Amino acid sequence: MVVRKEKKRRRGLHTYHGAKKKWRGAGSRGGRGHSGRLKHKKSLLVKDNRKYLSAKSLHRRVGHKFGFKLPAKTVRLKEINSIKIRDLDILANKLGLKEINLADYGFQKVLSGGKMTKPVSVTAQKFTEGAKEEIEKVGGKAIEG
């Protein structure tokens, strides 16, 4: 009858996994997963996909991203030029205006940053609530349209 002995654990020996580099990380295989498919593993990629040999298609096959598309809301907000009340007050004081049509200056919206020092009639497409209050508090008019 054969007596079975359990194998000794060999964790302390330097010959346990063969060469010691092979047991550390993914260095001996050139990285994990798809890493290096456009560098040192390019031959594997070309071998698998012979009809996709141009540089752009190789990049796309590996999964590189080419730009991105902005959400519609972000694009819409960028088209609106706005001006703060602080800047509006500076404009009115420098030019000595009592009536300002912001469409002439390329602005569509008035924001409520800063304070007005004199009454001015302002015409714009949109006003924030704070901007309307600030203009009317001094005695000016906020006209939408």
What best-fitting shape do the alpha-carbon axes yield? rod-shaped
**CATH topology of the largest domain, anyone?**
Ribosomal Protein L15, Chain: K, domain 2
Task: Tell me the distance between the termini.
Answer: 103 Å
Low-confidence stretches: none
Radius of gyration: 35 Å
- The CATH first-level class of the largest domain comes to Alpha Beta
What oligomeric assembly is this protein in?
single chain
Helix content: 25-40%
Question: DSSP strand (E) fraction?
Answer: 5-15%
CATH architectural grouping of the largest domain: Ribosomal Protein L15, Chain: K, domain 2
Task: Characterize the largest beta sheet: strand count, sense, and whether it forms a barrel.
Answer: 3 strands, parallel
Q: Please state the structural category.
A: alpha/beta
Task: Please describe the structure with a list of short key phrases separated by commas or semicolons.
30% helix, 145 residues, Ribosomal Protein L15, Chain: K, domain 2, three-stranded parallel sheet, 2 domains, alpha/beta, single chain
Could you please describe the fold and organization of this structure?
By secondary structure, the protein is of the alpha/beta class. It has two domains: 20-62, no CATH class; 72-144, Ribosomal Protein L15, Chain: K, domain 2, CATH 3.100.10. The chain contains five helices and six strands. The strands form two sheets. Strands 1-3-5 form a three-stranded parallel sheet. The radius of gyration is 35 Å and the shape is rod-shaped. The model has no long low-confidence stretch (mean pLDDT 79).
